[in-house]
Write a structure and sequence with these properties.
CATH architecture: 5 Propeller
CATH superfamily: Glycosyl hydrolase domain, family 43
CATH topology: Tachylectin-2, Chain A
Strand content: 35-45%
CATH class: Mainly Beta
Distance between the termini: 66 Å
Oligomer: single chain
Length: about 325
């Protein structure tokens, strides 16, 4: 009798499992459109290779002197909120924009986070990048700024000699003091933290010096570094805006070849050998760089519905 009951339970469980539709993985790629005045645009993909345009804007910029929204970076936190930071202006802004959302449609009031106001000669705050440090239960925010005459320079003008800075927060209300994150000895922007394993991190970065303007990697044992052993470039010159995600045991790095006006990608397993997979990807024309993250089909459905409404209202 007991065996029969167990058999019936297992059969019922199997039938229930067969009746449930397994939810697909959904990737979202944040974006903006030049000149950055319109706001947040989004792409989506089921395989991480073929992207479709969701349109937008899903959030219009309201903060900063220039009220731009460029380089949108989104990370989902432990409480389910999607947190976003972005560049608010080319020059003159000493901070970045911030907002959060549960569904990528309804957003909190936008905030301007003045992370460089203590350095009054700061030229810019570019491409803030979010990283959630789960081990320490905090968000790390990186960005590139120029403080003239602070660091040795090569061919760069004093107002274009960048270094990476950071702050951390647990609630986006209180922030640690801004500190220098990376000085590799050259002008650097567009840095992305990648966790491979415990005490094993990679930093994907752009060497912004002339004539380089290409992507490299460095290695560290903690998310805040120090990052050392900067590699040779793994992309051509005039490339920027890397975003990295893991799929099927490999890391895929998307980046913008801005002089060629196209998107490219490489795949790597060790961040030493990089295989060009640009012929395997499809990215809509006009897409500008942001970040890639996973979400649910329910979120995607809401975005599609919102996109249709935006199109109907335009």
């Amino acid at each position: 009798m007991f065996k029969n009951i167990i058999t019936l339970v297992l059969l019922a469980t199997a039938l229930l499992s067969c009746g449930q539709k397994q939810e697909k993985e959904v990737y979202i790629f944040t974006s903006f459109r030049e000149p950055g005045t319109e706001g947040l645009y989004l792409l989506y993909s089921y395989d991480g290779y073929h992207w479709k345009d969701l349109g937008g804007p899903f959030l219009k910029p309201k903060v900063g002197k220039s009220k731009l929204m460029r380089d949108p970076s989104i990370v989902q936190g432990p409480k389910g909120y999607y947190h976003m930071v972005w560049t608010t202006g080319w020059r003159g802004d000493q901070g970045f924009g911030y907002a959060r959302s549960k569904d990528l449609i309804h957003w909190s009031d936008q905030q301007f986070i003045p992370v460089m106001e203590h350095e009054p000669t700061t030229v810019n705050v570019w491409a803030p990048e979010l990283y959630y440090d789960a081990q320490n239960e905090r968000f790390i925010i990186l960005w590139a700024s120029t403080i003239p005459y602070r660091f040795p320079k090569g061919k760069e003008a004093e107002d274009n000699n960048h270094r990476m800075y950071y702050t951390t927060t647990t609630d986006f209300k209180h922030f640690t003091d801004t500190k220098l994150f990376l000085d590799p000895g050259f002008s650097v922007i567009d840095a992305v933290i990648v966790k491979r394993d415990k005490n094993d991190y990679v930093l994907v970065l752009k060497d912004n010096t002339r004539p380089e303007r290409n992507l490299r990697v460095a290695f560290g044992k903690k998310p805040l570094g120090p990052y050392k052993n900067v590699s040779d470039p793994f992309t051509d010159n005039f490339t920027e805006g890397p975003t990295v995600f893991k799929k099927d045991g490999s890391w895929i790095i998307y980046y913008e070849a801005y002089k060629a006006k196209e998107y490219r990608a490489v795949k790597t397993q060790n961040f030493k050998t990089f295989n060009d997979i640009s012929d395997q990807i499809e990215v809509p024309e006009g897409h500008k760089h942001g970040t890639i993250f996973k979400t649910t089909e329910a979120i995607l459905k809401g975005l599609k519905d919102k996109s249709h409404k935006l199109m109907a209202d335009s």
